[in-house]
């Protein structure tokens, strides 16, 4: 069933219709400077689509809580723990309740963490509850910034990861992202690039106008038109809106925001003396006692000269470590041995990196491996190399060194699989089976392992082929080598030996 909602009027005087089912599949990006009418546009979209689809609004300013009275949205206060928000999000998907996540009153870092936990709960819902849902994120540049700001790195990473999941992988889970931002230059490109529908409003900066024109397929000289757009006027493009750039004017809305734009009002006539009004406390105003610190007692000149003439105390010798420090080679050998011990457990592949990292740190303390602890990012890399069956101290030939360099361009969670296959190619060993690749990826799903090989091929890193015996061969054009034929359906030798 095709459902269209009325967003307003086109420049030709006809109704501007938005295909709701197409929007659920292709997502929407709204851009416009402050005062261009973005919130009005989102409110129109929410009101028109409320009878047809479940909605969730990530509201950093508390402007959309007024939807609760008119359309039955439940307001979720963001001043909760992240675990609570994650559980609430799961129940929202289960019971198909439209909600507004009110983040007003929280600082930016708290807003990012709360939004990430809430979006994570929506994303990780059970498959039985993957019903269609519009997820509207206002001021998306706060939650998916293009560059790091004053917030903590971990808060920015979890928030950006949640927004990336929403826009890149949310469609299969029924989540249709609708993001609004004041400036495209402040929004992470991998988040903005996943939208196929665009509504571009008034903007003044050249870099934002150029990006808006590029997204709409317009020439650079046409970008000047974005400066002349009136409030509530947007240029629409996308499969859910129009196949060509189409100027539209957003229609009226039933509800209004709690906060409105400031308007000029005349100053009041002051009957009393203004100085009395501001310097004299009112009758109901509590008067706090004024406490002035006593001035410090003057120090005699002789005491100052005596202090300056005293000899400087000798510096304390640096504290000696309780246990002798290991040499670099010994320390690296100990780290390799600990990684090998961890991977000997057949279930280690199916535990999260965070759990393995904590186990690694505990084993390092037991072995008296001193020095700075290995950071989490470096541990991921070491773990991926160890899963490929290579010790850090081994000399790298040219092909393997190039394989390590190629793997650095991939996401952390898939580097291990890539290196396992690359190691087999460098050693001319048979291609690993789907079960072995699934173990390297940390999953029991063989389908996911096969899709990773397809992903590597789409990135141009490998070429897959099947020989006349039905065995798989993976070639690495950049390395100049390929694996020997291997049976993709063979059992995982690691699991089989562990069972024996």
UniProtKB/TrEMBL annotation:
Cell division keyword on record: no
Coiled-coil parts of chain: none
Listed InterPro entries: ATPase_Atu1862_pred (IPR014588), HerA-like (IPR008571), HerA_central (IPR002789), P-loop_NTPase (IPR027417)
Biased composition (Polar residues): 253-263
Keywords, alphabetical: ATP-binding, Nucleotide-binding
SUPFAM superfamilies with a match to the protein in the record: P-loop containing nucleoside triphosphate hydrolases (SSF52540)
Entry's Gene Ontology molecular function annotations: ATP binding
PANTHER family documented for this protein: HELICASE MJ1565-RELATED
Disordered: region residues: 253-275, 480-500
Organism whose genome encodes this protein: Arsenicitalea aurantiaca
Residue spans crossing the bilayer: none
Residue spans of biased composition, Basic and acidic residues class: 490-500
UniProt keyword Transmembrane helix, yes or no: no
Record's protein name: ATP-binding protein
């Amino acid at each position: 069933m095709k459902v269209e909602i009325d967003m307003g009027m086109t420049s030709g005087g006809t109704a501007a219709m938005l295909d709701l089912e197409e929007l659920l599949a292709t997502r929407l990006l709204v851009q416009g400077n402050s005062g261009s009418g973005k919130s009005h546009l989102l409110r129109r979209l929410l009101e028109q689509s409320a009878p047809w689809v479940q909605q969730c609004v990530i509201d950093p300013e508390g402007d959309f809580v007024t939807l609760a009275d008119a359309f039955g949205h439940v307001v979720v206060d963001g001043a909760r723990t992240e675990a609570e928000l994650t559980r609430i999000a799961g129940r929202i998907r289960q019971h198909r309740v439209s909600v507004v996540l009110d983040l007003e009153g929280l600082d930016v870092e708290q807003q990012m963490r709360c939004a990430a936990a809430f979006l994570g709960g929506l994303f990780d819902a059970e498959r039985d509850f993957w019903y269609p849902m519009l997820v509207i994120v206002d001021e998306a540049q706060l939650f998916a910034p293009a560059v790091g700001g004053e917030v903590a790195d971990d808060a920015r990473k979890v928030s950006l990861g949640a927004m990336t999941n929403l826009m890149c992988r949310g469609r299969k889970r029924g989540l249709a992202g609708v993001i609004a931002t004041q400036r495209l230059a402040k929004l992470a490109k991998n988040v903005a690039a996943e939208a196929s529908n665009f509504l571009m409003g008034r903007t003044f900066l050249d870099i934002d106008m150029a990006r808006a024109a590029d997204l709409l397929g317009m020439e650079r000289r046409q970008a000047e038109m974005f400066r002349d757009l009136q409030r509530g006027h947007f240029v629409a493009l996308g499969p859910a809106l129009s196949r060509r750039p189409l100027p539209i004017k957003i229609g009226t809305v039933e509800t209004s925001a709690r906060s409105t734009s400031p308007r000029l009002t005349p100053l009041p006539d002051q009957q009393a003396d203004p100085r009395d009004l501001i310097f004299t406390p009112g009758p109901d105003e509590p008067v706090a006692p004024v406490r002035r610190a006593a001035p410090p007692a003057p120090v005699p000149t002789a005491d100052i000269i005596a202090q300056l003439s005293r000899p400087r105390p000798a510096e304390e010798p640096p504290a000696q470590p309780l246990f002798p420090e290991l040499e670099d080679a010994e320390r690296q050998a100990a780290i390799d041995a600990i990684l090998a011990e961890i991977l000997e457990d057949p279930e280690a592949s199916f535990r999260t990196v965070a759990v393995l990292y904590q186990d690694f740190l505990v084993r390092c303390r037991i072995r008296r491996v001193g020095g700075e602890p290995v950071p989490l990012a470096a541990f991921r890399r070491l773990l991926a190399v160890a899963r490929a069956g290579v010790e850090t101290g081994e000399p790298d030939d040219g092909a393997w060194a190039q394989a390590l360099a190629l793997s650095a361009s991939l996401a952390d969670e898939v580097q291990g699989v890539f290196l396992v296959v690359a190691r087999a190619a460098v050693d001319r060993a048979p291609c690993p089976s789907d079960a072995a690749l699934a173990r390297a990826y940390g999953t029991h799903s063989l389908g996911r392992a096969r899709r990773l090989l397809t992903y590597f091929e789409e990135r141009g890193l490998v070429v897959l082929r099947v020989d006349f015996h039905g065995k798989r061969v993976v070639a690495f054009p950049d390395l100049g080598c390929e694996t020997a034929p291997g049976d993709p359906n063979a059992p995982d030798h690691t699991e089989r030996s562990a069972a024996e």
